[in-house]
Amino acid sequence: MNIRQFFAVVVARWKIVAAVFLLTVLTTLVISLLMPKQYSAAASVVIDAKPDPVSAVMYQGMVSPAVMATQIDILQSDRVAMRVVRNLKLADNPQIRSQWQAETGGKGTVEQWLADMFQKNMDVRPSRESNVITVFYRAQDPKFAAGVANEFVQAFLDTSIEMRVDPAKQYSAFFDQRVKEARETLEKAQTKLSDFQRENGIMANDERLDIESSRLNELSTQLVMMQSLSAESGSRQAQARGDQADRMQEVLGNPLISGLKADIGRMEARLQELNAKLGDSNPQVIEAKANVNELRAKLSSEISRVTSGVSVANNINRQRETEIKNALDAQRTKVQKLKVLRDQGAVLSRDLDTAQRAYDQVSARLTQTSLESQLTQSNVSVLTRAEPPVIASSPRVFLNTLLSVVLGIVLAIGGAMVVEMTDRRIRVPEDLAASLGLAVLGVVPKPARTDAQGRKTSALFQQRVISQLPNA
Predict the structure, then answer these.
(1) What is the domain extent for residue 467?
(2) What percent of the chain has pLDDT over 70?
(3) How many domains are there within the chain?
(4) Does residue 118 form part of some domain?
(5) I need a labelling partner for 140 at 20 to 30 A (CA). Which of 123, 248, 384, 429 fits?
């Protein structure tokens, strides 16, 4: 079907087109006028990204679409709707309960029925480029619509706070128990360390180990020095016991021995002189020999005395060496014991420090969760509150009329085409060619004037043409 055929059908079926069009427009207009007026109230909230007043950290992902979608889901949840029902106390209204009884037959609860009804009339629209969420509620009463919209916003705020406070209360109870356990552990560690220090005589700032270590070092130095003295005295004792006793420093430096040696030298010289003059049998020679022998005996006795002093000194040095060595061993044992005690005390002290840190951390978490459990603010704030609207949001008579005009045109043309398909007529030369399968040789034009009797000349032309055609 081409444009010419389409317009020919529309013109031929103009009554049907006009009837369908007028019926559609009038029906829409009447329904729009008869429909009860609906008022839509709007309230908005903003999701803020300011720092948390307790933890002092920024809320993460405030501009994330997932976070905004989560907030919208919370707004549209049954939890918020049930809170609105409880806040409005509509379940106690006898009329509403009777209406619920009539519609549901007593199935379910009136609170759930009201929540479902509120959710059907509520709409949530997020802003595209901000953190603002707008709540719309439709109702026949503008005041009721504004009140329910504000209640939804308030219920959303309360639910947001509740969703933060409830876990914080649970955490607070958990950390409270952990604080008690950490305190008990800390007290046990403190008691254990105190008992250990008291039993071993260790003070908090004990410097005994340093003192004993210094004494150990001093004894080590003394032992080395005494060992050196013992080695020296031992060598002198060995010299004194040999044939070189008279060459010892003690012997050479002894004035008595030196005097005896001088006397012996003089006596020997006198003995030689007398022996040369008087001979060996002379009483003076014999007396001189006796004096020399006596002096030699005194010299040997004195040397023996001096050398015996060297032995005594060597024995004393060895005894002192042994004493210092024993004292050094005892001091070393004492220092080792103090080191063991210090290591044990360090372990207990570390246990105490660990228990103290654990207690401090758990106490800090308890304080934070306790503050969070007492919060009355959240990151959701009311931006605008709903006011009773003055103009009804529906029905929109003008918009509905415009839409009915468009729909009426479509339905009218469609109806005309359906009727045309059921009752096909020849309206243009193309229809004749399509129906008979013959080519059209010519078309008699349709005059646009009438004759004297008021008849259209097109009918006369048709009669003349038909009278001239041969009979079948």
Answers:
(1) 444-472
(2) 76
(3) 3
(4) yes
(5) 384
What digits encode the pLDDT tens for the residues 226-241? 777 777 666 666 655 5
220 backbone dihedrals φ, ψ, rounded to 5°:
-65, -40
Say how far apart CA 85 and CA 115 lie, in whole Å. Answer: 7
Q: Are residues 136 and 10 in the same domain?
A: yes
Maximum alpha-carbon separation in the chain: 225
Q: What is the reported pLDDT for 135?
A: 92
Chain center to CA of 280:
122
Instruction: Work out the pLDDT band at 472, boundaries 50, 70, 90.
Output: very low
Domain shared by 162 and 24, yes or no = yes
Same domain, 334 and 386: no
Claim to verify: residue 166 and residue 283 sit in the same structural domain: no
* C-alpha dist (Å) from residue 31 to 20, 65, 142, 401: 16, 41, 21, 10
Mean pLDDT for the chain overall? 76
Predicted local distance difference test score (pLDDT) of residue 224:
82
Higher pLDDT pick, 458 / 300 = 300
Statement to judge: residues 397 and 351 lie in one domain = no
User: Domain for residue 79, yes or no?
Assistant: yes
Do the Cβ atoms of 252 and 240 come closer than 8 Å?
A: no
Percent of the residues in the chain that have a pLDDT greater than 90, as a whole number: 4
Q: What is the pTM of this model?
A: 0.53
